[in-house]
Amino acid sequence: MSRPVPNPGILDIAPYTPGKSPVAEPGRKVFKLSANETPFGPSPHAIAAYKSAADHLEDYPEGTSRVLREAIGRAYGLDPDRIICGAGSDEILNLLAHTYLGPDDEAISTTHGFLVYPIATLANGARNVVAEEKDLTCNVDAILAKVSPKTKIVWLANPNNPTGTYIPFDEVKRLRAGLPGHVVLVLDAAYADYVSRNDYEIGIELVATTDNTVMTHTFSKIHGLAALRIGWMFGPANIVDAVNRIRGPFNVSVPAQLAAVAAIQDSAHVEKSRTHTEAWRNKLTEELTKIGLTVTPSVCNFVLMHFPTTKGKTAAEADAFLTKRGLVLRALGNYNLPHALRMTIGTDEANELVIEGLREFMAQP
Ligand SMILES: *Cc1c(COP(=O)(O)O)cnc(C)c1O
């Protein structure tokens, strides 16, 4: 009997394993520190704008997200015509893959690159080519060595999730300069707002001066609007034109557009989150190192910590130990980092509890 056969590549995608539903000991408060969500929630203005949309749910959205593109344009000094909004940056990344990848093509990502990249690549029948990282950091030479005539996209989260590392803008420019003109370089800036390094840049200059570089960004992280699914890209006219041809005409909902406009205008809310994150990133790195863990230097709103492989001290055991206390971190087996846990920086209370918990865990006989 015949039955439907999925397109080539689809069945090579590892089925998505959702985060576990944490069960803490009775009486423990649960802190979800596994999805890089902000402990501050969105701006109160964004919540108010979201609620105001409830009065007109019968109307379709304006199809191009014009009000949001204009607000993003004002915030970053960009031409709104070069911006596309999407249902999360996930949609934008998938639209880019669909626009430029097909069977026989190749797309390059790095060893511990964001998992959406290989999924978007395979979903379009293309081959996912992995470039080795160095010290859990993108290595430009390794990427350039993987380029072939079939390469169509290079995916680069800068900084990257789940490693928390970044490459300086000079290196990004060297990467662009070394890639053939027909290769789209996608710079995913989901965590850009948390970076406080002089040699980092989000990539606007590169997008504005080339016709093959795209920058993507999201409202899911520092703006705290992950539930509403809003992302965007800034790109050259030729790429914007091509992607817009396959974008669904009403892909961003009215409540999402209005909340995002209010969020991007609330710079005080963003600043509060940035300050809190930086202070705790430093403190967590210092305290966890003292306890005996290895912490990868992070520029994001999370830290990656590495555990010993000795029985009783492993990442899996630490994960179970913390979960009982209501502290839910992210295990990274599906990122091929079985000895590490990723912790999203949470409230003061949550962060203190993790330090205290891990100190006890590591001191156990
Ligand atoms: C969280 C994250 C995003 C944002 O995805 P959305 O679909 O916008 O929620 C994008 N890229 C990376 C690397 C991320 O970690």
UniProtKB/TrEMBL annotation:
Residues 29-356 form the Aminotransferase class I/classII large domain. It comes from the Bacteria. This is Histidinol-phosphate aminotransferase. The keyword Amino-acid biosynthesis applies. GO terms for molecular function: histidinol-phosphate transaminase activity; pyridoxal phosphate binding. HAMAP family: HisC_aminotrans_2. Its EC number is 2.6.1.9. SUPFAM superfamilies: PLP-dependent transferases. It catalyses: L-histidinol phosphate + 2-oxoglutarate = 3-(imidazol-4-yl)-2-oxopropyl phosphate + L-glutamate. The keyword Nucleotide-binding does not apply. Belongs to the class-II pyridoxal-phosphate-dependent aminotransferase family. Histidinol-phosphate aminotransferase subfamily. Keywords: Amino-acid biosynthesis, Aminotransferase, Histidine biosynthesis, Pyridoxal phosphate, Transferase. GO terms for biological process: L-histidine biosynthetic process. Its cofactor is pyridoxal 5'-phosphate. Residues 1-22 are annotated as: Disordered. Gene3D superfamilies: Aspartate Aminotransferase, domain 1, Type I PLP-dependent aspartate aminotransferase-like (Major domain). Coiled coil: none annotated. The modification N6-(pyridoxal phosphate)lysine is found at K221. Pathway: Amino-acid biosynthesis; L-histidine biosynthesis; L-histidine from 5-phospho-alpha-D-ribose 1-diphosphate: step 7/9. Homodimer.
